[in-house]
Amino acid sequence: MERILVVDDEKNYLVVLEALLSQAGYEAVSAQNGARALALVEEAEPDLVITDMRMPQMSGLELIRRLKERYSDLPIVVMTAYGTVENAVEAMKLGATDYISKPFENTELLLTVEKSLRMRRLLFQNRLLKQELKGFGELIGDSKPMREVYALVDKVAATRATVLLTGESGTGKELIARAIHTRSPRAEESFVAVNCMALSETLLESELFGHEKGAFTGAAGRRKGRFEMAHQGTLFLDEVGELGPSVQVKLLRVLQERTFERVGGNQPISVDVRIVTATNRDLTQAVEQGAFREDLFYRLNVVRIDLPPLSQRREDLSALVAHFVKKYAAEVGRPAPQVSKEAMAMIFRHPWPGNVRELENALERAVILAGPQITPADLPLEVRPEPERGAGVAELPRGLGLTEALEDMERRMILRALAESGGVAAHAAEALGLTKSNLAYKLKKYGIG
Question: pLDDT digit string (tens) for 180-205?
């Protein structure tokens, strides 16, 4: 219930207004002078003040001035005698939200009150949204490794320095890139993300830099690339270690000169883009092997942020579990289920080679399958210890058709390959006999990457 403070030296007005506001569903408190009003604002923390202009000892104008000095966001409605509009104008200059002339109709006063309170609600919601945008989004955790990451994000966000995010697959590199963007002066502009592993070199070049009409078969018209889309904003290049030689050359030029040409074009295009890149590969080793340009590596590696795997921040598990259970319960429109002690014990025992993304995927599945409580049976097979799994056909969850069972097996094989390759997607794709783009599709499909 919203609380309104009414200030007037005429007691009859106070009685009438308190009754009117109470009937309208507000909590009303009153004061007969400015000094008492100042004390009540401190004690009662009202959502709105309605004050008369002409009062002894402290005028309405003086009360407004003193309130605004200490409570700048507090809305104030001024009651003025008929014909004294100049006083209302002066009050608005001092920060009053609105005014109403005495005598007034009850409906007129209530409409004015609702209008001022609505403005306060909108301001409050806007402030919360800005705080959320300036925060770390879905990055959950207060472990020492994550606090170190947050500190680096805070330091680098306000600059235009190029940032290289490293870490295993599923550690939240895109979330960190978004946090850098939303905490930067570019927050109001576009954040554009590109997965460099998902496209062939030719298609990726067109995706990044755009193309002119007729540049290649199927290029029916001019198309802007992601660099142009991200102008004055942030461009996030995920899996940057998978870039081919020709794209590496063009990216290096953009970083050095802030210009490029579309595929099939010769007109230089200037852009102002903040570059954030991510990789789960060892780029130093890639440079030594001649697979990645050394000069480009140094351009990208201005500020490096290493994201810890979930195995190094296990104290964050409880908070992550609570967050994902609540999130997916809300999505399916049901109360968040409790997590049984047995299920939580299994979650803590599992090594989580797919990191936070694997945990999120497991909990989404568990929320969908669970009743009022998440039990071990609701968790994916790979999370359960061997005795829970059984053998042979018994390993398959009950109620799955052939397609679902095969997908479950495929997902587990991908997770195992990623774990054995140290999280390097290219090596995992080779071990599984897949192309990099095919693996990228499956990672997205199963929520692993």
Answer: 999 999 998 999 999 998 888 888 98
**22 with 171, same domain?**
no
Tokens in use for 60?
Answer: 């309405």
Tokens of 247: 């794209």
The mean of the pLDDT values for the chain is: 86
pLDDT of amino acid 138: 67
pLDDT at 288: 94
List pLDDT tens digits, range 86-130: 778 888 888 898 988 888 889 999 999 999 988 887 776 665 455
Distance CA 147, CA 287 (A): 30
CATH number of the domain enclosing 414: 1.10.8.60
| 103 cis-preceded (ω within 30 degrees of 0) | yes
Q: How many domains does the chain have?
A: 3
pTM here is: 0.59
The Cα–Cα gap between 269 and 209 comes to 10
Question: Which DSSP category does 242 fall into?
Answer: G
Question: Pairing state of beta strands 373-374 and 338-339?
Answer: parallel
Q: Please tell me the distance from the alpha carbon of residue 34 to that of residue 60, in angstroms, as a whole number.
A: 7
| Strand 163-166 to 303-306 pairing | parallel
CA neighbor of 43 nearest in space, from 32, 35, 51: 35
Domain co-membership, 321 together with 284: no
Q: Are residues 232 and 262 in the same domain?
A: yes
**Tokens 């306060």 identify what position?**
120
125 and 56, same domain (yes or no): yes
**Pair (304, 315) in one structural domain:** no
Domain boundary among 107, 133, 159: 133
Pair (116, 230) in one structural domain: no
**CA max distance for the chain:** 90
Helix pair angle (106-134, 11-23), 10° resolution: 60
Residue type at 280 in one-letter notation: N
- Of the three residues 104, 133, 162, the one that is the final residue of a domain is 133
Q: Which domain holds residue 30?
A: 3-133
Backbone φ and ψ for 138, nearest 5 degrees, come out as: -90, 10
The answer to whether 55 touches 34, Cβ cutoff 8 Å, is yes
Is residue 347 left, alpha or beta, with left meaning phi > 0 and alpha meaning psi from -120 to 50? alpha
Residue 315 shares a structural domain with residue 291? no
Report if residue 225 sits inside a domain: yes
DSSP, residue by residue, 88-131: HHHHHHHT--EEEEES--HHHHHHHHHHHHHHHHHHHHHHHHHH
CA–CA gap between residue 333 and residue 321 (Å, rounded): 18
Backbone angles phi and psi of 302, in degrees to 5: -65, -50
